[in-house]
Write a structure and sequence with these properties.
alpha+beta, 3 domains, 10-stranded mixed beta sheet, two-stranded antiparallel sheet, 12 strands, 15% strand
Length: 447
């Protein structure tokens, strides 16, 4: 368990719940938003860069810099001055920076001048080139209190193509049109996806939440698709590994139970190599595929929160992403499913092969034990034969000694003749020797 005091834990939990408050915005806003893949650890360079960018925008000097700026990298920071809002957020693997210009959308004649040529020049030029991370998301949002009903032909002026989405959102509180296609700006090196918002009367709080959701959709849909190029690159390796595993499994089916253990061990080495390749692919892709699953769920959640209603002649944001994001995400999920399946197949083949090797070794051990048992029986029989021969030899020598002994005894002292005595002594001596041998065996068995 955490060793922190309960009150401290409570403070941490409470701070996390309120760490990223929604924006409070008016109806006229120009938003430039960037998300950079930076890894899981925030760095001093990252926060120092954000401070330098704000210094350029606000014209700060050392003396005029706010005294309450964090000295260490914060997870969330928002600051407003001179009609410019900076919003910095630190997430698990990326950092985001939103630069919001309030009351920046001017009118050109009777119409709002959306996405003007000089709009991007207000952004510090180093914001993308020098930020410590890889740029993944760049979005430009224009919002004003514009009640005109726009047609697809009208939007082609702003989006420079005819493949976009549009819908009523927030219970008809606004119209949102999204290009979702990078469009290089004619002034500057930036390329943005563009979003046009017609605010039809949302409050400042609801406007801030709407902008936040649109930015999150842009962010999460981009990060959900990061794994697609990786999957397409690694897919041939997985296919090759699947084919190799199928070949090994087919060869295993032709191996009989009488095959030498060396053949099975060679197959086991091949299976082990395949398993190692699968683990390598899994190590390269597991984090990214898990992130794709999480980001896809977040995109779906944020789209649901928009509460879209269809506008005639336009596809909704949900429909647009259903046709384009979902197939890409499913490709990643299919790859993950294939990877898990081939991993299980390799594991089953490995287990089966090890079982066959163990059975083969067991059969060999049983054969060896049987051979040793037969040899022991043969040795026992040979020992018994030797013992019998030994009894015969000892009997022969004892009878010979008895013969010499009887030669020294006079005949009149013997009740039987010498040959009869010797004949009777042979079985008696043999029986006595056999009995003594049995007693010795019993004594040895007890020990």
């Amino acid at each position: 368990m955490n060793n922190l005091p309960n009150q401290t834990i409570q403070d941490v939990i409470d701070a996390e719940l309120h760490a990223r408050p929604y924006l409070t915005l008016g109806v006229n806003q120009r938003v430039f938003y960037f998300a950079f893949q930076t890894g899981e650890q925030s760095t001093e360079n990252e926060w120092s860069f954000v401070v330098d960018i704000m210094r350029q925008s606000y014209g700060w000097t050392e003396a005029s810099m706010p005294s309450d700026l964090p000295t260490s990298p914060p997870r969330f920071f928002m600051y407003e001055e001179k009609g410019i809002i900076y919003r910095y957020e630190r997430h698990s693997e990326f950092a985001s920076l939103a630069i919001i210009f309030t009351n920046a959308v001017q009118k050109k004649g009777r119409k709002p001048d959306y996405f003007p040529a000089d709009g991007v020049t207000k952004i510090p030029k180093d914001v993308v080139a020098l930020f410590p991370g890889d740029l993944i998301v760049a979005t430009w949002i224009e919002m004003s209190a514009d009640h005109r009903s726009l047609l697809p032909a009208d939007l082609e002026t702003y989006f420079q193509h005819d493949n976009f989405a549009g819908s009523f959102v927030a219970d008809h509180g606004a119209r949102v049109y999204c290009s979702m296609k990078l469009e290089p700006h004619q002034k500057g090196e930036f390329a943005f996806t563009r979003v046009l918002v017609q605010n039809l009367g949302l409050s400042e709080q609801r406007t801030g939440r709407l902008i936040q959701r649109l930015l999150e959709i842009e962010t999460y849909r981009h990060f959900a698709m990061i794994s697609l190029p990786m999957v397409n690159e690694i897919k041939p390796q997985l296919t090759k590994t699947e084919n190799l595993l199928s070949q090994i499994s087919k060869e295993m089916g032709h191996i009989g139970n009488t095959e030498p253990t060396e053949v099975l061990q060679h197959q086991l080495i091949q299976i082990t190599n395949v398993t190692a390749k699968i683990e390598k692919i899994s190590a390269l892709t597991s984090y990214r595929l898990a992130a794709t699953k999480a980001y896809d769920a977040l995109v779906r959640s944020r789209i649901k929160e928009l509460r879209e209603t269809r506008i005639d002649n336009f596809q909704t944001i949900a429909q647009f992403l259903e046709r384009r994001l979902v197939p890409a995400v499913r490709t990643c999920f299919a790859f993950q499913s294939r990877l898990e399946d081939v991993g299980l197949r390799a594991q089953r083949s490995n287990t089966l092969l090890r079982t066959r090797i163990e059975m083969q070794i067991q059969i060999q051990n049983n054969a060896l034990l049987s051979s040793m048992e037969n040899r022991a029986k043969q040795q026992l029989r040979l020992q018994e034969i030797v013992e019998l021969l030994s009894i015969a030899a000892i009997t022969y020598y004892l009878v010979s000694l008895l013969s010499y002994l009887l030669k020294g005894v006079k005949t009149e002292y013997l009740h039987l003749d010498r040959d009869t005595i010797l004949a009777i002594s042979v079985p008696v001596i043999a029986i006595l020797l056999f009995a003594v041998l049995k007693l010795v065996r019993k004594s040895m068995d007890k020990e």
